[in-house]
Design a protein that fits this description.
The complex is a heterodimer of chains A (658) and B (173). Chain A has 658 residues and is of the alpha+beta class. Chain A is built from 23 helices and 21 strands. Chain A has a 5-stranded mixed β-sheet with strand order 6-8-9-11-10. Chain B has 173 residues and is of the alpha+beta class. Chain B contains 3 helices and 12 strands. In chain B, the strands form 2 sheets. Chain B has a 6-stranded mixed β-sheet, with no helix packed on it. Chain B has a 6-stranded mixed β-sheet with strand order 3-7-8-6-5-4. In chain B, β5 and β6 form a beta hairpin. Chain B starts with a helix and ends with a helix. The chains are: A alpha+beta (658), B alpha+beta (173). At the A-B interface, α12, β20 and β21 of A face β4, β5, β6, β8 and α3 of B.
Chain lengths: 658, 173
């Protein structure tokens, strides 16, 4: 449990901080002069160093400290941010991630630090020797804590003690801002301090003293003798001048340091971290409450007690609201998923030598957290495919009259109870002739088999299918697309491909908003009650007596001039009761077209919490799950795609027999 | 794997130890059966069952166990008995079983639940090679109990693994 284990909590938080740093770095790679991004990276590294040291991750704190120091020079404008530097910090960031997990070889860290130093030197145009910090003989430190510092647990005496540990200190309190006694708030800190620290102390060590309060406080740290800088400069000669300028620069930045901090607090929404398991448990309880409530309302409706009835209605409303609130709790914006792909694109661009522009749209669209997690792997695969197979090399693109940089766009939008996520590239598109040749070679289709465009493109999802002529490190091994399709279907979603040769491909994933709840049509076949997902239902009609009688010959009805095949749930589920005299047909849409499902009775709409089937029922594939009805009994939820697949051979044998 | 570890992993008591085994004794088709009391979560009256078409007959139904949907298994079938109609003594014993690393909650239909008894390991014996009406691999051991009564300790893992393994094999195709 996260709440009980501070180390685990730190790991989670550090992971998030590293995510933010990574995003900022990736942005920085495109906009090297964006000071906000530089600050964001610096803040992230700074936080990581501080909290790492606090939780005993000394290796992490030490390593991060070096990166922070290097990056601090970028922040202060002493060194321009360069692509090389960003890329080193990115790999440093990976190393930090490994350190957080506790499985990083120290040698990696040293190598990265060496590269970091090289990148800094290159960026600043100085030689390594000149880059080392000047040894100061002492520092003049002035600081003033925010008024609420003591209320927040900072003890200024401790800070002064820490400074004393660094070297000989002369401390002078500045009392100029202490208000008259009548206005004095005793819990606030009104005193500032001037400290003269003598000795060979590094600036970082002084800053470390203030590490937890630095963002909000006034702090200036100047080398001793800066007041008579002219004299010092004269004495040291012209070589010394840039060093002094460098040392003076932080005074200005320290004063403005509170502005990004203020911005970040304004941005951070108030939130509580809760383990997903507890949310699930709460969800279960709410589900049970809804069921108990509907039993209560049945009891109330049966009796004559008006008071009971009104209480029951009140509880019904509350339970419904509670359930709606519960659903929203689990929703997270898909932006959190999209942002994870930026690094992937960055690495893919590097590995393939292609220039890839990555754009996202509709990040605010919200999806159930479980769905997000399960979408990650399939989307990685699809994006890799787009970058590796889809996009051409810059030379090929220019030859084809396209801009040299390929584009990959991720977009999300909500459509009814579904979220549509599209992955669009402007690459070469899917070569249909090659797909066809490959499908024939693999025996997936007959050489002369007629396929429409949709069916042909769906071939790429067949197991063992790959059109890449050569297998690369990234993709083309022929595993994957079928797994992608299976995963998406496991999420009750669908996958669709559009492609124009020479212009690019579009892959659209349609995913239900949540896995936890389903709008369904409750039907009865024999004595069993089943839920048909409402998203699949097109209409309900009555099976006419003559169509019913004729069923030995063919299971087809004519619906608006079109023939629609139908399956009898009674036959598929082998029910042994007598059929109802008037059979109903629920027409459902499937990728293969409309199919009718014949049932005994249509009971009505049913919104319900989906419960998974136990492992022992995994091979009863016709069911996507189960749900608990108002009377406490269990109804099974039909998996339409599986049901049709199961029904097909049966219909074919019936047809052959008839 | 050491024998002791194996015993721990499957919840068995090592046969050569003097430890006592607490079990719940119940009837199935006129025969006494027992299972470790630590596995038992709850004993329920009969309740409405929902048939799962296409599921193995052994776990052909599901029930609503406090908001969870759990399979209802009928061990009559595992021991080749005919399934009797429920009587006023019929009960569902809800157990939690470790199946391939997953803690699975399963309801067991029983004809009658007797008591929690303590068996000593000394009175238990391996299932004999001949003379059993049942599949030997479904029986873990036999225990002499009371007045020459023989109580069967079924090997629940083995019984349910026939289903999960079957499912795994089916999903590969």
């Amino acid at each position: 449990m996260i709440a009980d284990d501070p180390i685990a909590a730190f790991r989670v938080e550090a992971g998030e901080v590293l995510d933010q740093v990574e995003q900022a770095l990736l942005d920085l790679g495109h906009r090297l002069d964006d000071a906000d991004l530089v600050n964001a990276v610096f803040r992230g590294l700074h936080t990581l160093k501080g909290s790492g040291a606090m939780f005993g991750f000394d290796a992490l704190a030490g390593f991060t400290h070096h990166c922070e120091t290097a990056f601090d020079r970028v922040r202060k404008g002493q060194v321009p941010a360069t692509a090389g530097l960003v890329s080193v910090i990115l790999s440093a960031q990976d190393h930090m991630r490994a350190l957080v997990e506790g499985d990083a070889p120290a040698a990696d860290g040293d190598a990265i630090l060496a590269r970091l130093q090289a990148a800094i030197d290159e960026a600043s145009g100085t030689t390594p020797a000149a880059a080392s910090a000047p040894a100061a003989t002492g520092w003049q430190i002035a600081f003033r804590l925010p008024a609420d510092a003591m209320a927040n647990g900072t003890n200024p005496l401790m800070l002064l003690d820490e400074l004393r540990e660094l070297g000989d200190c002369t401390v002078v309190a500045r009392t100029d801002k202490v208000p008259p006694l009548a206005d004095l708030v005793p819990t606030e800190c009104h005193i500032g301090w001037d400290v003269t620290l003598l000795g060979d102390v590094k600036r970082d060590d002084i800053e470390d003293v203030f590490i937890f309060v630095m963002d909000d406080m006034e702090l200036s740290i100047e080398p001793l003798g800066l007041a008579d800088a002219d004299a010092a400069a004269d004495a040291a000669g012209t070589d010394e001048a840039p060093v002094l300028a460098e040392a003076a620069a932080p005074v200005a930045t320290a004063a403005t340091a509170d502005s990004p901090a203020a911005r970040s607090t304004a941005k951070a929404e108030e939130s509580v971290r809760v383990p997903a398991g507890r949310l699930d448990a709460l969800m279960d309880r709410v589900g049970e409450l809804v069921i108990a409530q509907s039993r209560l309302s049945q009891c109330a409706d049966r009796g004559q007690d008006l008071v009971l009835r009104s209480v029951s209605e009140e509880i019904e409303r509350l339970a419904g609201e509670l359930r709606d609130t519960m659903m929203v709790l689990r929703m997270v914006p898909v932006g959190s998923l999209f942002s994870r792909f930026r690094r992937l694109i960055h690495d893919l661009a590097r590995d393939t030598g292609k220039t890839i522009e990555f754009e996202t749209e509709g990040e605010a669209t919200e999806v159930d957290k479980t769905v997000i997690e399960r979408l990650f792997d399939p989307m990685v695969h699809l994006i890799r495919n787009s970058c590796d197979h889809g996009l051409e090399t810059p030379e090929d693109r220019i030859a084809a009259g396209k801009p040299a940089a390929g584009s990959v766009r991720l977009a999300a939008h909500q459509a009814g109870g579904e979220v549509v996520i599209t992955i669009r590239d402007d690459g070469r598109g899917i070569n249909r002739a090659r797909v066809r040749a490959k499908a024939e070679a693999n025996g997936l289709i007959q050489p002369d088999q007629a396929l429409n465009d949709h069916e042909l493109l769906q071939m790429i999802f067949a197991p063992g299918f790959s059109t890449a002529a050569t297998v690369t490190n990234l993709s083309g091994r022929g595993v994957g697309m079928d797994v992608v399709k299976r995963t998406i279907e496991g999420l009750r979603g669908s996958i669709d491909v559009q492609s124009t040769e020479g212009e690019g491909s579009l892959i659209a994933l349609r995913i239900p908003l949540t896995l936890a709840i389903i709008d369904g049509l409750l039907v009865r076949a024999g004595s069993g009650r089943y839920v048909i997902p409402l998203t699949a239902v097109e209409e309900c009609i009555e099976l006419s007596l003559e169509d019913d009688m004729r069923h030995r010959g063919r299971s087809l009805i004519t619906l608006r001039e079109k023939l629609v095949p139908f399956l009898r749930l009674r036959e598929i589920f082998a029910t042994d009761t007598r059929p109802d005299p008037f059979q109903k047909i629920v027409v459902v849409s499937t990728p293969q077209g409309r199919v009718g499902l014949v049932v005994d009775q249509i009971i009505g709409n049913h919104q319900t919490v989906i419960k998974p089937m136990s492992a022992l029922h995994r091979d009863a594939a016709t069911f996507a799950g189960a749900t608990i009805l108002g009377d406490g009994e269990v109804a099974l939820i039909l998996d339409i795609a599986q049901l049709i697949a199961l029904g097909q051979p049966r219909e074919e044998t019936l047809r052959a027999a008839g | 794997m050491q024998p002791d570890e194996h015993c721990q992993a499957t919840g068995l008591v090592p046969r050569n130890s003097d430890r006592q085994l607490e079990v719940l004794v119940f009837d199935l088709g006129g025969q006494s059966f027992a299972l470790e009391a630590v596995l038992v979560r709850e004993i329920l009256d009969m309740m409405p069952e929902t048939r799962v078409p296409g599921a193995p007959a052994l776990v052909g139904h599901v029930i609503n166990f406090r908001g969870r949907i759990i399979p209802l298994a009928d061990l009559h079938l595992a021991f080749g008995m005919t399934v009797p109609a429920p009587t006023k003594d019929s009960r569902i014993v809800v157990i939690e079983l470790d199946l391939g690393g997953d803690a699975t909650i399963i309801g067991l239909r029983t004809d009658k639940v007797h008591e929690v008894a303590t068996f000593s390991a000394a009175t238990s014996e391996d299932a004999p090679v001949v003379g059993l009406r049942w599949k030997r691999e479904h029986v873990r051991s036999l225990v002499r109990h009371g007045n020459d009564d023989i109580v069967v300790l079924p090997d629940l893992e083995a019984i349910f693994q026939t289903i999960t393994h079957g499912a795994a094999a089916a999903s590969i195709h």
